[in-house]
Amino acid sequence: MSMSDRGLPLIVDQHAVLEALPYLDVRNVLARMFRALGSDMAVQPEQTLTPFPQGAGDFITYLGVMADAKVFGAKLSPYIVTQAKPVITAWTALMSMETGQPLMWCDSGLLTVERTAGATALAVEQLASGTATRLAIIGSGAVGQAHLRHLAPVRPWESIRIFSPELASDTAKCAQLAALDHRVAICDGIQECVAAADVVALCTSSGTPVLHESMLDKPALITSISTNVASAHEVPPAWLAGMDVYCDYRDTTPSSAGEMKLAAEHHGWRAESIVGDLAELMCGKAAKPSYRKHAFFRSIGLGLEDVAIAYELFTYLNKRARA
């Protein structure tokens, strides 16, 4: 199988993605992608949200172009309203810049989780203090577990504390988390989890702050991800004015991230005060946190991340078929 084969595009379902995941080098893929973005060898447009008629839901389009790999693509992630739980899926179309033909159409659910955690790991690698030894993770779902896997090797953590309300009654999940790393300790409350933490990874689906005043007793790096809730924000928007703020991409994140929009609207914060983004950090163009105050890294998820990991999947499947 090759890019010119008549069998293209590949149709890759969730089962095939799951089998391939252990063989994908997510961290290095994202590192190369962000360096390309910082060197004008990649293009990241803003994500767009398109509503369905009559309140039936919507879909978000994540776009990206990677010149070095000669590919471009789009991830489509619908939110479909039903009488029960809403339907949320994600599929990525990968296409060739050379032929204009489709290469692959793949289920992106699992890939989105991995690239989200991988981007946070890159940020922690770049931004956490060199003396950081205490990691706190808030959230124990698929995204929280992926963050644990990706963050565990970033620093020589002495402790990894995890809190999620559901863990109090889920001994099986507690055992599952403990099996991922011997340093894991399950906490009874969020205050206990974040006490003396050097890095706090927020991995929740909350639309409102999960951190509050006096929870953090020293300057820390706080990382936060996106969720489907409108204007979701895991930290109080008022905090941004007193933080060293970073993001995945400064040209697109401030217009989508809930706490950034609210901080600009109500608290006098300006996007121009962002210290750096991942593209700048990976190219050595941004200052590191002072740690005289908290540092905050916000990711919304980029189409380029989706294109990059889809291309890594395509390359792996291509090589496997040739073997």
**What share of residues is helical?**
25-40%
Largest sheet: 8 strands, mixed
What is the beta-strand fraction?
Answer: 15-25%
Radius of gyration in whole Å, from Cα?
20 Å
Helix-strand sequence: EHHEEEEEEEHEHEHEHEEEHEHEH
Helix/strand class: alpha/beta
The number of helical elements comes to: 9
What oligomeric state do these chains adopt?
single chain
Straight-line N-to-C gap: 10 Å
Query: Segments where pLDDT lies below 50 for 5+ residues?
Result: none
Mean pLDDT, all residues = 94
Give the overall silhouette. globular
Q: What is the count of β-strands?
A: 16
Question: Can you describe this structure?
Answer:
The longest helix is centred in the last third of the chain and has 20 residues, at 303-322. With 323 residues, the chain is α/β, with parallel strands linked by helices. Helix 5 links the parallel strand 10 (159-163) and strand 11. Strands 1, 2, 3, 4, 5, 6, 7 and 8 form an 8-stranded mixed beta sheet that branches. An 8-stranded parallel beta sheet has the order 11-10-9-12-13-16-14-15. The chain has 9 helices and 16 strands.
